[in-house]
Amino acid sequence: MALATAAVSLQPLLSRPGCALRCARRLPSLLLRATSSSTSASSAPDFNITFAEPAPSKSKAPSTAPSAEPPVPWIVRGVDGKPSLSTSPPPDVLQAIALAEAEAKKKAKKEPLKGQKVALPAAAANAGVKVKDRKAAPAAPPKFSKAARRFYNENIRDRENEPQRLAKVLAAAGVASRRTSEELIFQGKVTVNGSVCTSPQTRVDISKDSIYVNGNRISKKLPPKLYFAVNKPKGYICSCGEESKSVVSLFNDYLKGWNKIQPGLPKPRLFTVGRLDVATSGLIIVTNDGEFAQKLAHPSSNVTKEYVVTIDGAVHKKHLIAISEGTKIDGVKCIPDLVEPLAAQSDTKKTRLRIVVHEGRNHEVRELVQNAGLQVYALKRVRIGRFRLPADLGIGKFVELKQAEIKALEGNN
Q1: What's phi and psi for 230, nearest 5 deg?
Q2: Can you state the angle between helices 317-325 and 364-371, rounded to 10 degrees?
Q3: Are strands 376-384 and 280-287 parallel, antiparallel or unpaired?
Q4: Which residue from 89, 187, 233, 357 could staple onto 93, CB 3.0 to 4.6 Å apart?
Q5: What is the pTM of this model?
Q6: Residues 100 and 77: beta-carbon distance below 8 Å
Q7: What is the Cβ-side half-sphere exposure of residue 324, based on CA atoms within 13 angstroms?
Q8: Sign of CA dihedral 161, 263, 242, 275
Q9: Do residues 216 and 281 make contact, with C-beta atoms less than 8 angstroms apart?
Q10: Cα 270 off chain centre by
């Protein structure tokens, strides 16, 4: 009876949806109270109703959010050049991350995986270190190509570390010329690791072996390779001696300040590449690279040299033909590559000729002109290979050559 009364009293509440929802949780407890009251009122219950315990809630427990990772410190160099700590990556890293993401998207479109998506590494969102390793930010192109670097590593770098002949090492160290170095070795004035060495072919490593010449130790560092273009004055000789009017003497002031320019390195021994006679002016190369000088000055290199010859007297067509036919010098027939007259200058009425040769033999141009019956008034060299004497280089002045200009010396027009 009490159960029926409870059911009747709940009917108004269940008829309202809003109230039903609020009272739904209390319904089992009310029914249980009604059951217990009915059992207490009557010793013989009409109903034996039991209810199962409510099912556990399927709602997931609130998951704890993962703790935020500590910020990654970045050392960034500012505009003033001083390093400072920053919590955000540098711009180049951000650019690398963006490029990596774009590359991954392109790759995903071209090669879609079955049922999988291309996922970017998680580290890219934080620091981008892995992405930076995978694809570096675009930088300036390398100075040399990959093939050139491979050729250097295989053919040049290893040779620089190999032992070299003693005479060659002494010449490279600026002791003397290679021939004079050989004479010093034969005279027993050179010691290697405490023992007198009399063979110029002995292999030594200047970085490891102890070398003395006349009691003076050779530096373990070699001077750098130097290349100069000189506008040789008339009256100077191409000699490596201590003459006051030699081409090398034009570098006296430069060598006096060498310790300030290259501290810790020995002074280079400079010499001329080839020769110009004392009455000839113009372009001549000065260096301390013996192999380069030998290659450039040897007649077999066929490097062209251009001269401007000022003639004392009239020049006719027969003279030009005679010069073009060539002449014998030291038993060898020498024929010029080009002979042509130049425009007359306003300050003089003398005829000028342009003569190009490639033999490079001693007094070759003078012999060609004199064999044609002409008299040389002035002779000046203006070009070697593809390198031309700078117009703004004064007489007796010199300029250091760049790598492209050194390459131009070995080529022809």
Answers
A1: -120, 140
A2: 130
A3: parallel
A4: 89
A5: 0.59
A6: no
A7: 10
A8: positive
A9: no
A10: 28
Q: How far apart are CA 128 and CA 94, in angstroms?
A: 8
Indicate the residue type of 207.
S
Q: Are the CB atoms for 307 and 368 separated by under 8 Å? A: no
Residue 338, Cα to own-chain centre: how many angstroms? 40
Tell me how far apart the alpha carbons of residues 177 and 181 are, in angstroms, rounded to a whole number.
6
Task: Please give the structure tokens belonging to residue 293.
Answer: 């000088």
User: What pLDDT digit, counting tens, does each position of 336-395 carry?
Assistant: 999 999 987 777 788 999 999 987 778 889 999 999 999 999 999 999 999 999 999 999
Q: How far apart are CA 276 and CA 274, in angstroms?
A: 7
Could you tell me the strand order of the sheet in which 211-213 lies?
A: 195-196, 190-192, 211-213, 216-217
- For 147-160, write each residue's pLDDT tens digit: 777 776 666 655 55
Per residue in 42-101, pLDDT (tens digit) is 444 455 555 555 665 554 444 444 445 566 677 777 767 677 777 777 777 788 888 888
Residues belonging to the chain? 413
SS3 for the chain, per residue?
A: CHHHHHHHHHHHHHCCHHHHHHHCCCHHHHHHHHHHHHHHHCCCCCCCCCCCCCCCCCCCCCCCCCCCCCCCCEEEECCCCCEEEECCCCHHHHHHHHHHHHHHHHHHHHCCCCCCCCCCCCHHHHCCHHHHHHCCCCCCCCCCCHHHHHHHHHHHHHHHCCCEEHHHHHHHCCCCCHHHHHHHHHCCCEEECCEECCCCCCEECCCCCCEEECCEECCCCCCCCCEEEEEECCCCECCCCCCCCECHHHHHHHHHCHHHHCCCCCCCCCEEECCCCCCEEEEEEEECCHHHHHHHHCHHHCCCEEEEEEECCCCCHHHHHHHHHCEEECCEEECCCEEEECCCCCCCCCEEEEEEECCCCCCHHHHHHHHCCCCEEEEEEEEECCEECCCCCCCCCEEECCHHHHHHHCCCC
Give helix 2-14 / helix 27-41 axis angle, nearest 10°: 160
* Catalytic (active-site) positions: 277
* Cα distance between residue 133 and residue 126, in whole Å: 14
